[in-house]
């Protein structure tokens, strides 16, 4: 895990398929924000992406985090991993293994996210759309995992195309 210094209140959003990769996340983290790498089809540049999508994506998780850490060794860098992704659990666990400081997770309710990061120092942050969904996740995580989110993102109807 990185040192995870987050000094300015900016979270760079996870924009998929090649937008939010290590370069952008590293630049944001270097300036004191929270840099996020999107796991959505992150391995699209890999030679075997079409034949071995999951393996290509897992390799790219490590590569892009390493790239971000080279830019911002002291910064807070994590991944935006959508619950709706196939192999969601595998990608979360791979990001933890790679050394992510935080996993931000939405596009569905990340009910099992605490179990995927268990035993690590990786922080977790669900993205929810209403106060009701926030209360549900808080109650569920507290009861099942004896854990609360490290932060929570609430996206309203004007969340840049989301919801």
Please tell me about this protein's structure.
- This protein has 163 residues and is α/β, with parallel strands linked by helices.
- It is 36% helix and 13% strand.
- Strands 1-2-3-4-5 form a five-stranded parallel sheet.
- Helix 5 links the parallel strand 4 and strand 5 (153-154).
- Helix 1 runs parallel beside helix 2 and helix 2 packs parallel to helix 3 (88-98).
Strand content: 5-15%
Structural class: alpha/beta
Estimated helix fraction: 25-40%
What's the total helix number?
Answer: 5
Distance between the termini: 32 Å
Q: What's the main sheet like?
A: 5 strands, parallel
Could you spell the SSE succession in H and E letters? HEHEHEHEHE
| Average pLDDT level | 90
Shape: globular
Question: Low-confidence segments, ≥5 residues, pLDDT <50?
Answer: none
| DSSP, total strands | 5
Strand numbers in spatial order across the main sheet: 1-2-3-4-5
Task: Give the gist of this structure.
With 163 residues, the chain is an alpha/beta fold.
SSE topology sketch:
Elements: H1 22-30, E1 34-38, H2 53-71, E2 76-80, H3 88-98, E3 102-105, H4 113-117, E4 123-128, H5 131-145, E5 153-154
Parallel strand pairs: 1-2, 2-3, 3-4, 4-5
Helix pairs in contact: 1-2, 2-3
């Amino acid at each position: 895990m990185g040192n995870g210094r987050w000094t300015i209140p900016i979270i760079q959003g996870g924009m998929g398929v090649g937008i939010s990769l290590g370069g952008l996340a590293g630049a944001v983290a270097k300036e004191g924000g929270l840099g996020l790498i999107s796991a959505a089809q992150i391995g699209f540049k890999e030679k075997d992406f079409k034949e071995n999508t999951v393996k290509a994506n897992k390799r790219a998780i490590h590569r892009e985090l390493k790239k971000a850490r080279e830019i911002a060794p002291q910064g807070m860098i994590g991944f935006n991993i959508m619950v709706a992704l196939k192999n969601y659990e595998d990608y979360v666990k791979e990001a933890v293994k790679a050394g992510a400081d935080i996993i931000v997770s939405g596009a569905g309710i990340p009910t099992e996210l605490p179990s995927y990061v268990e035993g690590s120092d990786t922080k977790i942050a669900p993205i929810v759309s209403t106060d009701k969904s926030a209360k549900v996740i808080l109650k569920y995580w507290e009861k099942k995992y004896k854990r609360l989110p490290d932060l929570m993102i609430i996206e309203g109807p004007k969340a840049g195309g989301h919801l």
